[in-house]
Specification:
The protein is of the alpha/beta class. Helices cover about 45% and strands about 15% of the residues. The protein folds into 3 domains: about 100 residues, no CATH class; about 100 residues, no CATH class; about 170 residues, 3-Layer(aba) Sandwich (Dna Topoisomerase Vi A Subunit, Chain: A, domain 2), CATH 3.40.1360. This is DUF3322 and DUF2220 domain-containing protein. It comes from Chryseobacterium manosquense.
């Protein structure tokens, strides 16, 4: 036999489909809660208590809620007893008052009307996401203002906080999720579907990541940057960089970037701070295809995984100081970070063999721990 709590749980589960029926303008139909019509327990006091709990929450006792129909049923241990064979909600009011959702549904109806009056094409989204309408119940006026602006200006080319919309300056940033879902429907033809980032997807300006690099050729530093050798510029500017560079060294860690300035003069060379897996910010710099390219990372599983990632952008990439000899000479029994990567990496045979050793033993040699004299020997 079903319990009072099970009736509540099953009724809760009917709520979403009820909301959907409102949007589809389907009339309320008797809502049946299915339950077990048998009873297998042997305690009469327990049976009477469960029946009392079910009846106490019914329309008969409270004036609203579910209606119960009983039938005399022969049980396994308690002879014949009156069991509820049918549980149902007769009216919308009974259903909503039982769930204490009357006010919420009134607001939902109002919001649905508000949304569909402005954008009828959002009706299907509402049917699929009725709880999203309720979650954003206090925000729909402003959400619709944003959508109306983008509908008229599908390619604003402004920063989010520059948009001439009468809303709080942080409103769009706080509500990107729902706004994106709606704009994807409203601006199907105008969105940049290749990008998942909100600003890029909807043609907004955004704060770009900076690429930091050090110029290891003093002549280039003097001629193009007034002697400045430590530079950070937006990705888009880095992608269009035009310098007489023939060799590029990408390093994983910031400390190692400083170390590169202590190296002997390196003609036509720059060192880039890759910042771990953020090397993906470099993939659009097509001029890197035409230079001699080196990657220097930690000798651990992540270091080789980053190398593999970077090599997928620029196949000519060579690893630097990420070899077995260097590892065995300077390893100090440091532990690394375990990895869940199981796909084949884009590594040479020697790199792959070292990677497997590091992975099995969870070992790490950070690039900062390699002495300068060893680095200089390699460069020279």
């Amino acid at each position: 036999m079903i319990t009072a709590q099970e009736i509540r749980n099953k009724t809760d589960k009917k709520y979403i489909s009820f909301l959907q029926s409102l949007v589809e303008q389907r009339p309320f139909e008797k809502l049946v809660i299915r339950g077990d019509k048998s009873y297998t327990k042997s305690s009469l006091p327990e049976f009477e208590k469960e029946i009392q709990q079910i009846v106490s929450q019914s329309k008969e006792k409270k004036g609203f809620g579910y209606t119960l129909e009983f039938q005399l049923v022969k049980t396994k241990f308690l002879a014949s007893q009156n069991l509820p064979i049918s549980i149902y909600f007769d009216t919308e009011k009974d259903f909503l008052k039982f769930l204490d959702k009357e006010k919420e549904v009134e607001l939902f109806k109002s919001d649905v009307e508000k949304i569909t009056n402005v954008f009828p094409e959002l009706k299907e989204w509402i049917i699929k996401n009725p709880l999203r309408v309720i979650t954003n119940q206090t925000e729909w006026d402003n959400i619709l203002k944003v959508c109306q602006y983008f509908k008229k200006n599908p390619k604003p080319n402004l920063y989010i906080r520059e948009l001439p919309i009468k809303i709080h300056t942080k409103f769009i940033e706080k509500n990107k999720g729902v706004i994106r879902e709606l704009l994807d429907i409203l601006l199907t033809e105008q969105i940049n579907s290749d990008s998942k980032e909100f600003e890029k997807r909807f043609h907004l300006k955004f704060s770009e990541p900076l690429i930091r690099f050090k110029i290891l050729d003093k002549e280039i530093s003097q001629k193009y940057f007034s002697g400045i050798d430590d530079v950070a510029i937006p990705v888009s500017q880095f992608e269009s960089l035009n310098l007489p560079i023939k060799r590029v060294l990408v390093v994983e860690n910031k400390t190692t970037l400083y170390t590169t300035l202590t190296l002997p003069k390196m003609d036509e060379t720059i060192a880039i701070f890759g910042s771990g897996f953020s090397v993906y910010n470099l993939k659009g710099a097509q001029w890197l295809i035409n230079v001699e390219l080196f990657y220097w990372g930690d000798i651990d599983v992540q270091g080789f995984e980053i190398l593999s990632q970077f090599r997928s952008y620029f196949p000519q990439t060579q690893s630097m100081l990420m070899d077995k000899t260097t590892f065995e000479k300077f390893f100090e029994n440091d532990s690394g970070t375990p990895t869940n990567v199981s796909t084949k990496l884009n590594l040479t045979d020697g790199e792959q063999q070292l990677y497997e050793v590091l992975k099995i033993n969870n070992w790490r040699l950070e690039q900062e721990k390699i002495p300068l004299y060893w680095i200089n020997e390699l460069v020279n």
